[in-house]
Task: inverse folding
């Protein structure tokens, strides 16, 4: 199997991570593109003694820490990028990397230590630092769109444990839109397959046509959203999920939100 074939299954998830790290699909994809260009230019330098996914993310981090692509003008920018830069001034990159890599991407602490060249104990400290700093900066009202009662209750508990309020739990597209218009949320957590066979994707589209709000999709069918053929969600969690993954995604989504932007 060629190196390209080994890396291909991991690229959608590296793109997800890059978007979450930078707060921009444009910038995130630019870093992923630069990573692949570096691998193609010097395949002999790709780490051969580790799992291909680890090697891919290690190469990405080398590019991300040295190329400063976010300083270059790019098309498709929006207010989220300005918000991200304002927050980045308050939160150093390493804690955010450690948080995303462990909670969102599912790497072990030892893996992350390898990826960012630190000791495991330092990685654990970075994760705690990131959670504390981000949670201190962000508070929001959250709409949950989920038709499975047990899952909905679990998500609600996670949201409330982080100090946020839950405006409603909607189980259909119609319910979701009505609740969003009744009390405009600062964050939406949405499944894509709802109780009456309606679509959470359509519900989110309806909501976003009326208000601007960050969205986290939580779904057992990530392939429906990670197509590369249209703007993809910055935050996408696969079921079954870890509670730490949901917490990390919520913190990161609000990290880039206008409503909680630093003054």
Result:
């Amino acid at each position: 199997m060629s190196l390209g074939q080994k890396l291909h299954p991991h690229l959608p998830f590296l793109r997800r991570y890059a978007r979450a790290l930078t707060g921009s699909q444009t910038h995130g994809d630019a870093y992923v593109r630069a990573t692949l260009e570096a691998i193609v230019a010097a395949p002999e330098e790709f780490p051969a003694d580790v799992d291909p996914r680890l090697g891919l993310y290690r190469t990405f981090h080398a590019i991300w820490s040295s190329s400063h692509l976010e300083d270059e003008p790019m098309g498709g920018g929006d207010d989220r990028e300005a918000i991200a830069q304002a927050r980045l001034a308050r939160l150093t990159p390493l804690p955010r990397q450690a948080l995303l890599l462990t909670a969102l991407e599912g790497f072990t602490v030892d893996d992350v230590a390898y990826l960012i060249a630190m000791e495991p104990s330092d990685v654990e400290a970075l994760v705690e630092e990131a959670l504390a700093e981000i949670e201190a900066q962000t508070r929001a009202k959250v709409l949950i769109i989920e038709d499975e009662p047990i899952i909905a209750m679990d998500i609600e508990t996670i949201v409330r444990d982080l100090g946020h309020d839950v405006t409603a739990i909607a189980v259909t597209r119609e319910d979701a839109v009505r609740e969003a218009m009744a009390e405009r949320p600062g964050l939406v957590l949405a499944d894509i397959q709802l109780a009456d066979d309606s679509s959470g994707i359509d519900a989110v589209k309806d909501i976003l046509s009326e208000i601007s709000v960050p969205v986290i999709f939580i779904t057992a069918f990530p392939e429906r959203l990670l197509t590369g053929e249209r703007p993809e969600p910055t935050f996408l969690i696969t079921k079954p999920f870890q509670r730490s993954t949901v917490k990390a995604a919520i913190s990161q989504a609000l990290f880039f939100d206008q409503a909680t932007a630093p003054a």
Observations:
- Residues 120-137 form the longest helix (18 residues).
